[in-house]
Amino acid sequence: MAASPTNPYSEAGVDTAAGDLAVELMKSSVRATHGPEVLGGVGGFAGLFDASALLGYTKPLLATSTDGVGTKVAIAQAIDKHDTIGQDLVGMVVDDIVVVGAKPLFMTDYIACGKVVPERIADIVRGIADACTATGTALVGGETAEHPGLLGPRDYDVAGAATGVVEADAVLGADRVQDGDVVLALASSGLHSNGYSLVRHIITGAGIGYGDNAADFGATWGEALLEPTRLYTLPLLRLIDALADGSIHSLSHVTGGGIAANLARVPPVGSWAEVDRSTWSPSPVFRVLSDIAGTPLEETEGTWNLGIGFLAVIEAGQKDAAIAALAAEGIDAWQVATVSTGARPAGAFEEGAKGVDGGAVRLVGSYRDSARGHN
């Protein structure tokens, strides 16, 4: 009897059947993100999105963003828990789009892995799809690539890109910011998706395993560190609409680089702001990690968000209305600074962050103790 023909691709370590099964497992969650503007099914070479809705704009501008999750995926891999990484990805990508006041339209994702484990891929994509639904974004396509020999069987990385739209005369940015504007902080859910190389260094150095119990958090270390990124897109879009007089002037997504560097990107050149540390207490996860490392919180300000996931620069008279509107969305917000265009105090400020010729920002004072929360 003749031997069954072999599949040289399978012998090289690529399992196309597993890839097909992964697509089948994720189909329903992806389809749940589709409205009537998405054409075609799951698995096409390209996703189709009906752009006729843009005809209702006077001058529509498309906004786009791309990002990944970084080394947070290493913790997901270590404890074999993959259902939250997708939300982290959407938070990193889609929440950048809302910074300019844009409404997200659609997103695509890319997963590179050493071995396709269908259930694992489906968990990741299900998390992406659920977060897309929560941000009003259609997940119109993606790619899962198996890279044996380049990545280990348990290894993977995720990335994505999204597109949104905003009316040209509604774009938020530095040109809208005025002297006396208030800077509001919007609370984060924890570490979000930045600074995990430092987190992993601290955990490894302390001899802690991700499966070990973290008494401070009532969970294992891995579970606590995988707390998903808070999604701000729809609450912020609703806030912009609620304060429709244009009193939201600029927004900043606090990601890599920390509070000062990201805030410095959104006010105009010549302006400055001092973020008052005493207005809030950094979340417990930051305090616990800093204590383990023996490092003051102030030394981590260029790495972690320290409890602030977004910043909004708004007209001072709208501060209370904005705080109340965000509270109704389940987001704690408080004033941390005021923008000034007057003479700048002496001392070092963060400015020119990430290539942007923006304002100057520094943090001042001491953090509030954990028992007192924030203003």
Estimate the strand proportion.
15-25%
Overall structural class, as computed from helix and strand content, comes to alpha+beta
Rg from alpha-carbon coordinates: 22 Å
Largest sheet: 4 strands, mixed
For the largest beta sheet, what order do the strands appear in spatially? 3-6-4-5
**Poorly predicted residue ranges:** none
Q: How many angstroms separate the termini?
A: 80 Å
Q: What's the number of helices?
A: 11
Mean pLDDT comes to 90
Reconstruct the topology from this structure.
Blueprint: H1 8-11, H2 16-31, E1 38-39, E2 48-49, E3 60-68, H3 72-79, H4 85-97, E4 103-113, H5 118-134, E5 138-146, E6 156-167, E7 182-187, H6 196-205, E8 213-214, E9 219-220, H7 221-225, H8 233-242, E10 248-253, H9 258-263, E11 272-276, H10 284-293, E12 308-314, H11 319-328, E13 333-338, E14 350-351, E15 360-364
Parallel strand pairs: 4-5, 11-15
Antiparallel strand pairs: 1-2, 3-6, 4-6, 7-12, 7-13, 8-9, 10-12, 14-15
Offer a few descriptive terms.
single chain, 375 residues, four-stranded mixed β-sheet, 11 helices, alpha+beta, four-stranded antiparallel β-sheet
Can you summarize this structure?
The protein is α+β, with helices and mostly antiparallel strands and 375 residues long.
Description:
- This protein is α+β, with helices and mostly antiparallel strands.
- The protein has eleven helices and 15 strands.
- The protein has helices spanning 8-11, 16-31, 72-79, 85-97, 118-134, 196-205, 221-225, 233-242, 258-263, 284-293, 319-328; strands at residues 38-39, 48-49, 60-68, 103-113, 138-146, 156-167, 182-187, 213-214, 219-220, 248-253, 272-276, 308-314, 333-338, 350-351, 360-364.
- Strands 3-6-4-5 form a four-stranded mixed sheet, covered by helices on one side.
- A hairpin with a 4-residue loop joins strand 8 and strand 9 (219-220).
- The radius of gyration is 22 Å and the shape is globular.
- The relative contact order is 0.15.
- The mean pLDDT is 90.
